[in-house]
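Input/output pair, single chain:
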Amino acid sequence: MKEIKMNTVEKELYYQGEVIVRYRIEYPEIINSYNKDGVQIFNHENRKMALDLKEYAEGELYEQAKQMYEYNKKNGYPIMIYELIRECTITYHQEQLISLYCDEYIFEGGAHGNTLRKSQNWNLEIAREIPLQAFSKGNPYYLIDILKQINNEIAKQIEKGTGNYFPDYCQLVLETFRLENYYLTPKGIVILFQQYDIAPYSSGIPTFLVK
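Output:
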């Protein structure tokens, strides 16, 4: 079994002697593996994503935080610390298949920050990510089946009082469904939706196990 470790890049950025930006960025790295090509591409892509986020935090986010600092200082408001936090979770790790998601939380002032969940599904043997269609088992209607399962699950949650969704969730599920927004687990495939896609902020990131 390949060993996967989590690397972390973190820093506090100052302006006029005060912290205005704080970031902590996780990214996975495969070590001790015989599959060199697939592993190198996996490691390279994940390192690049982390460095891109680091560049954003130290560039654009820092500039936004400086402007907000000046505004708050001028108007006597509390100083806000902008944050960027990326946390990664390995959801499936078997043979040449590795599946994971990373939650990227960004706070840019206001009432609360926002989280974007990005998933990855790798076949290291062919050194690339694999599409959802690869698990369709030749079913030409697999997307329709998935959407039906999701809408049925939402209806059950609403009936039981365990789920909070927008009234037009059926239409929103269809409009906001993205083929790349899935990850593997030992129990099956999980389809995810982003915050506000089909439910209020308080509902977090909706996920649905489909088989």
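The domain at 3-129 is CATH 3.30.565.40 (Heat Shock Protein 90). The chain is about 30% helix and 35% strand.
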